[in-house]
């Protein structure tokens, strides 16, 4: 089922090795986005569960080259090694995917050393989901309206926030009118509409989501512009 002639129309194929919490959620998301997804796990239970939403779910050892070839994994556009606890299995699966010719391999690392090893043996991208989630949460705690955050430097980033109540009806010019505010509003999501590089005259509406780039201190200050002091 996973093997089809390569053609211009076909969706990208992704193999996900290890259907734990991270692998399952990645595979589910990719399938819902229209990718052809092959999920592999050494245990039966996650394979049975994933078979409801992936293109093909197979039980087996993701480090076994013969098994991967029998599933035509070499025809995948992307390989994701989503199990990170067992270092040997993660390294071997990454090596085998590169060896059989998967052009883009993303591997999950449990820590920095593990990540360094994965990079050395050829992983094209190494991810640290647990550490990244902790960093995002840490940065976002100061501003309660932030619901996502990408680190740019240790003290600056991109933040996605729900427009605070006190922003509604105000223009960006009004919000920017704060001395030394090292911050830019990059886009506003208004229901299904994306307003990229919004103009200064754009007024914030209820339920808008705003993406800003700036220092953490500026993001924090920005979120409180126009807020009435407590008790007033
Ligand atoms: P998560 O946090 O996403 O749940 P994890 O990084 O803690 O995962 P594990 O729990 O060790 O990693 O494994 C994730 C999944 O990978 C499990 O379902 C496990 O059965 C599967 N797995 C472990 N080793 C292999 C292997 N060699 N081949 C295929 N699947 C494997």
Automatic annotation (TrEMBL):
PROSITE patterns: RCK_C, RCK_N. Pfam families: TrkA_C, TrkA_N. GO terms for molecular function: monoatomic cation transmembrane transporter activity. InterPro entries: NAD(P)-bd_dom_sf, RCK_C, RCK_C_sf, RCK_N, Trk_Ktr_HKT_K-transport. Residues 11-127 form the RCK N-terminal domain. Residues 144-228 form the RCK C-terminal domain. GO terms for biological process: potassium ion transport. This is Trk system potassium uptake protein TrkA.
């Amino acid at each position: 089922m996973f093997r089809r002639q390569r053609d211009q129309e076909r969706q990208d194929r992704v193999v996900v090795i290890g259907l734990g919490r991270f692998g399952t959620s990645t595979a589910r998301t990719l399938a819902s986005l229209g990718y052809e997804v092959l999920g592999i796990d050494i245990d039966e239970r996650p394979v049975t569960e994933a078979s409801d939403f992936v293109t093909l779910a197979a039980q087996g050892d993701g480090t076994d080259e013969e098994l991967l070839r029998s599933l035509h994994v070499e025809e995948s556009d992307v390989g994701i090694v989503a199990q990170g606890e067992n270092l040997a299995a993660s390294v071997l699966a990454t090596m085998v995917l590169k060896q059989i010719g998967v052009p883009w391999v993303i591997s999950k690392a449990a820590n920095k050393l593990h990540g360094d090893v994965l990079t050395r043996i050829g992983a094209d991208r190494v991810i640290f989901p647990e550490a990244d989630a902790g960093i995002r949460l840490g940065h976002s705690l100061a501003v309660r309206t932030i619901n996502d955050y990408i680190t740019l430097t240790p003290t600056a980033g991109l933040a996605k926030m729900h427009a605070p109540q006190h922003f509604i009806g105000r223009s960006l010019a009004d919000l920017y009118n704060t001395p030394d505010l090292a911050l830019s509003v990059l886009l506003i999501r208004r229901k299904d509409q994306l307003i990229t590089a919004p103009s200064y005259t754009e007024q914030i509406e209820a339920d808008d989501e705003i993406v800003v780039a700036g220092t953490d201190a500026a993001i924090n200050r920005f979120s409180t512009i126009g807020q009435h002091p407590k008790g007033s």
